[in-house]
Amino acid sequence: xxxxxxxxxxxSFGADTSNDPYTSWVNLLRQHYIIENHCQSGVSEYxxxxxxxxxxxxxxxxxxxxxxxxxRVYVNYNPxxxxxxxxxxxxxxxxxxxxxxxxFADAARLYFKHIFDIDYAYDIHNMVCREIDELTKNYSAxxxxxxxxxxxxxxxxxxxxxxxxxxxxxxxxxxxxxxNHMVYEVVNKSLSL
Length: 193
Known about the structure:
Elements: E1 5-10, H1 25-29, E2 34-37, H2 45-53, E3 62-66, H3 94-97, H4 103-114, H5 118-136, E4 141-145, E5 158-160, H6 162-167, E6 169-172, H7 177-192
Parallel strand pairs: 1-2, 1-3, 3-4, 4-5
Helix pairs in contact: 2-5
């Protein structure tokens, strides 16, 4: 029997981790699946859409997508994390720029203070999610998040780990060891249906 191939797309929740103090939910899934991981830390929903568009989805038995916060703003280039291995392609979120220094960080803080609009961010996020849903509708896709998705686009098969996240924050894919194991169990069950 051939091992199923999973295409994993999304943000840091699904990003590849290696030298961590405990095993991530993504690496636990590798016991059962071949995983082609396209996730990148700190990316907006728009960049997740671009990940999906960049490959032939037909080569996967299942598609797994980790969705991000609507407050993550797309930027073509973010100099704040150019020297960190996991965040080289990240977009902007207010918490990343609050303590940063330099001209770019100053401009980003002013953007979030004077220009950013939460309703617009939700609308853009929802439009991109609808496009992702349309793009993946003919594939076996599982959608997950750990953000509060109230008021956001609801995928028919969305698994929301927000409550688990609040109780199990940690260092590996944002979860402690117990949280990673719980995410693994739920996602594995969903993928095997």
